[in-house]
Amino acid sequence: MSKDSSDLVSPSLEANLRALQGLYENCADVYYREFNMGKKKAFVAYIDGMVNIDQLDQHVLAPLMREGAADAADDAGGLPSILSVADAGPIATIDEGVSRLSGGSVLLFVDGAPRGFALGLAKWEKRSVEEPAAESIVRGPREGFTETLNVNTSMLRRKIKSPAMKIVPFEVGKLTRTKVLLVYVEGLAAESLIREVRERISRIDIDGILESGYIEGLIEDNPLSPFPQIQVTERPDVVSASLLEGRVAILVDGTPFTLIAPSTLFSMLQSPEDYYQRFMIGTLIRWLRYTFFLITLVLPSLYVAILTFHHEMVPTSLLLSIAKSREDIPFPALVEALLMEVSFEALREAGVRLPKQVGAAVSIVGALVIGQAATSAGLVSAPMVMVVAITGIASFMIPQYSTGIALRMLRFPIMFLAGMFGLLGLMLGVIAIVIHLCSLRSLGVPYLQPLAPMKGREMKDVLIRAPVWAMRTRPRLTGRSEPYRQPPGQRPKPPKGNDPS
Amino acid sequence: MNRAGWRYPLALAALWCMGSLGLTGCWDRTEVNDLALITGAAIDRDEAGRLELTVQIFIPRASGGGGGAEPMSQKNGSTGNNNTFTRTAVGENIADAFSHLQGELSRALFWGHAEVIVFGEAAAKSGIRDHIDYLLRAPQPRERAFVYVSKGKAQDVLQLHSILERDTAEVLREMSKSKLALSVTLAELAAMLTDDAHSAVLPMLTIVPAPTFKQMDQALSFIDGLAVFKDDRMIGGTDSNAARGVLWLRNEIKRGIVTVHPVGPGSSVSLKLLKSSTRLIPRIEGDTWRMDVYIRTENDALQNTTRLNLTSNLQAMKQVEAEMNEEMKSQIRQALVAVQEGMKVDIFDFAGEFHRAYPVAWKKEKSRWDERFPNVEVRLHPNAKMLRPGLASIRSTVPDKEYAK
Amino acid sequence: MIEKGKISALQMALLMHPTILSTAALSVPAITMEKAGTDMWITPALSSVVGFLTVYLSCRLHRRFPKETLIEYCRSILGAYLGKAAAVVYLISFLYTMGIILREYGEFIVGTFLVKTPMIWVILCLVAVCAYAVREGLEVLGRAAQILIPGATFVIFGMLVIMLPDMHLKHMLPILENGPLPPLLGSIVPMSWFSQFIMVSFMLPYLSQPNKGLKWGYISVAAVLITLLAINLSILLLFGPLSKEFSYPFLNAVRYVALADFLEHIESLLMAAWLIGMFIKVVVVYYAAALGTAQWLGLPDYRPLIVPLGFLAILFSIWAAPNYQALKEILGTELPFFALTMQVVLPACLLGLAAIKGGRAT
């Protein structure tokens, strides 16, 4: 930002107008309204569609055009006092003015005044707060983030009211000048972590940020990994819970998807509802999810391996019935599995992309073609269809969409390995994935944190979902500022006896 | 940074090359469609002394019924049953016969699910050690396959029809698993042949012919008696009564029904065996070697045609228990007479018991065990317990005067 | 320091457990059965003494040279020339050991599961995965062990539990029929496996809590002892004297397992669990060889050495023996003396020399 004299707001109205018009040449959406303020000339500039015109008329133009307003404008600080606008701040440079203008403010310049004013009358069409579509739950808050940053921060502030929650702004992107907010709770998030995130965000030098995915791709630890190392959510309650665990959140203007870091594989496998439902159910569901996590990864490969290499492993009667159903299938099991998996992926992708009205048609066609016709035409065996269906369901059980995608992607190389070496190849593939997972870090925190390296105390939120009163300590991420969440003895113990029977 | 930048794609490319090279191989890949699943095998010896290997093979296409062409050649197998067919080949040993068999079939024979192996009587009498060698050495055949000896040709057993089960091999397997009769797995057989007594015992199969010619497919085979092996040669068989005695001594009776006559012939009490355990306690006193056999059984009454009131009369229960002891003794005596005195083969593993209890004495006597064994004195101490008289005792409502007689 | 990661003492113990066990569980029962007969279940207890001794020696040496690995303090104790020479012998012995391990693994897989697959492919695939793991460093190895080993151990012990109904206690008797000599002779071979605990000397310098090294080293030896005891006993109780007829008795034992009609023929599952152990074993030796070579050559990083060392190890695995019988012969006769000299006697001498010279870390 150059601070030379030409950039400063000039006392001459003409100069200011020319400066703005020069910057916004060929920008049809920028409007200028010149008017007289008593004897003085003045103008307002705003971008069409981003400003509340009613308020501009009532609270800015009307009082200013009234008699006597010009006197207040004589001393530069006095002007806001006669405007009934909450956010009315002075601007010293044209550059500052431009950034306020593009943020939806109205710029007010008065002839002879050494400063202009930015009036926060921004109002544009925005989506209302809705239930997040990608993360639906049965019990829990139904609100989700929107594309508007201040709506999002307000939702967070409503949940964590303590001033310890800090919101640090950044502006990223040379052309988009996107507002990025780093949110953390002071005293819970480690100093080193905040420093690291600040540094990584400041390092970004790019023309534009259109979605938080850009930020994710630019700050993650291992960009060449198939696994996401930063959690993404559009739920304010998930962000708040993470903040309370000492993580940080990164909000990006223009997208409801918020980044949470550091995150581990296990945090990706948790749903907020685990905590809202009773703890036993939460624990059971977690284990179900872990099981199906493995199934997503290996079931088709296991089927291929057993059916082409280890026939003796299948119980005799099961093998005989599989043999019957496979008798007319022209493909080897590996090809059959690949065929089905690929068409399933295509079906899923088509279902996501298509308009909702057509989506139903796709699923009907898919179910009929793949499920019914393929088996009766003798192209695919019925057990294979079942395996693919279970795998598909399993992959949808993973709450974090990007983790599910990673698994779905990795099952193809494992299928090839299983087709080459049977269970041996499958295991080699799994071992390689485990090593990769062990080597991953999310902002310095090992990806498999409480399991490897083993942190016994944190297992209570991984192997089980401990009752709320038993979860006394926070997970230890990079540092530990405040280890305890609550004092001991919170377990409810209602008095017993003396009941009227 | 840059170095790492090109290294990764390079590694990926190398992996890709390895992968595609590997795929050209797929050396051990065998589709289920290319397998002929053996469900059971029979080993016979023909008149010329050559080995006949018969395998029962599952027909995957047959399930839907109709359609499939039925293999109808009379000589080489064919059963009316749609699920399986049998095939026989002749060779010098199993491996040789197997290769001939494989030559006749379009699909790779697969032993992995062969749960049943039947030896023909002639093959069993000429020694089974060579066959066991193949079955344990080759990686495919299972150690848990059940082994039998059949009266006559073993292949006849596999060619029978099965009405209840999928195929005859499955029939035999289910029978062995029910533990009503002796069941011996391949590994157990191998262990018996290598242990101190150098003898073995296998269940003997008998074929019951079909009631009429029209009901050809109702012929069946069942376990009837035992085949006794000295070293690896079968030297004789026992009937089913003696077989029961052998099971008592070998502690292999787990289920069964015993019928006793506590008040003389004409009326009986049947007991259901719930639990039985046999302990062999060897004793050496001077030059006499003795074996004390303690058998404890627990039973429930199943049917009572005598006038004894089992529900309320403790004395009657004692009477039944005593009679059951006698019954067990007599069955075991029969077995001892047939095996210890007749065939002089130690199939009860007395040798192992003496070895474990008296290692020093055993070492001296080891070489003379065959002479020693027939003279081992066996003392039986059966201890039958009747736990419950059953749900109801209709007999107890018979008028008292009838009781009085 | 070439290695910058730190591992916990627990991770070290977890890494060492399969390093000893994975090949021992396969071939040792048959080899000891030949000498010790039905007393073979005692042999792990006797030979574990060597394990405890090796851990003790390594920890004492570690206390004198807390920042150095075996290769480095060879030099510190024996001087520049002799030390370098001793180190080179160690490095070659590691490569040779790795070759033997790979060969055992290849023989097992090709002999039982992938009969038609060329052994070189089977070995190559494992080495490729191991190379990737070694590249990621000790820290990642420790974590991978923490995840993989409990699973594999769970599978193995689960199989032992399923075997229980088929076990007969009488197969164990009579105990010590021919006096204590057979089990003593039989325990010489497993000793060579236990002496591989020398590998801890490559991990001790990188422990996050160095004072816990000795304790967890002992725990690891004890864990190996218990597992080996359980495996030996289960084989013996299952098959009795027949055990010595099998090439891989534990494999046969698992093949024999049956539970409720559907959990049968699960030897492939054993192969999967065993592969995990085998992987850790190869990786530990591979890592020691790579790190040691880098330290010997004075390189700043061991990663460039991974690929050439891997190829060398594959070559060693092919040269190690012409066939399975010869390999078994080597395992039963030559290897024990070679291993005991290299992994027990030489470290003991080093410790003695260091004590005499009063040498401390520089």
From TrEMBL, chain A:
Pfam family, one: GerA
Region of interest called Disordered, as start-end residue ranges on this chain: 476-501
Keyword DNA damage found: no
An example Gene Ontology CC term for this record: membrane
Gene Ontology process terms (BP): spore germination
Tree of life domain: Bacteria
Compositionally skewed regions (Pro residues) per UniProt: 485-501
Ranges annotated as spanning the membrane: 287-309, 359-379, 385-407, 414-437
Keywords, alphabetical: Membrane, Transmembrane, Transmembrane helix
Family, similarity comment: Belongs to the GerABKA family.
Protein name: Spore germination protein
Organism: Cohnella nanjingensis
Lineage, uppermost ranks: Bacteria, Bacillati, Bacillota, Bacilli, Bacillales
From TrEMBL, chain B:
One Pfam match: Spore_GerAC_N
Bilayer topology term: Lipid-anchor
Segments forming domain Spore germination GerAC-like C-terminal: 224-390
GO-annotated cellular components: membrane
Domain of life: Bacteria
Keywords: Germination, Lipoprotein, Membrane, Palmitate, Signal
UniProt KW Membrane keyword: yes
Domain Spore germination protein N-terminal as annotated: residue spans: 28-207
Cellular localisation: Membrane
Chief location: membrane
PROSITE patterns listed in its UniProt record: PROKAR_LIPOPROTEIN
Record bears the keyword Endoplasmic reticulum: no
One of the protein's GO biological processes: spore germination
Family from the record: Belongs to the GerABKC lipoprotein family.
Entry protein name: Ger(X)C family spore germination protein
Lineage: Bacteria, Bacillati, Bacillota, Bacilli, Bacillales
UniProtKB/TrEMBL annotation, chain C:
Keyword entries, A-Z: Germination, Membrane, Transmembrane, Transmembrane helix, Transport
Protein name: Endospore germination permease
GO biological process terms on file: spore germination
UniProt cross-references to Pfam families, sorted A to Z: Spore_permease
Gene Ontology CC: one annotated term: membrane
Main localisation: membrane
Membrane topology: Multi-pass membrane protein
Signal sequence region: none
Subcellular localization, as worded in the UniProt entry: Membrane
Keyword Transmembrane: yes
PANTHER family for this protein: SPORE GERMINATION PROTEIN A2 (PTHR34975)
Protein's UniProt keywords contain Transmembrane: yes
Origin species: Cohnella nanjingensis
Membrane spanning stretches: 41-59, 80-102, 108-134, 146-164, 184-204, 216-239, 271-293, 305-325, 337-356
Cross-referenced InterPro entries: Spore_GerAB
Entry similarity comment: Belongs to the amino acid-polyamine-organocation (APC) superfamily. Spore germination protein (SGP) (TC 2.A.3.9) family.
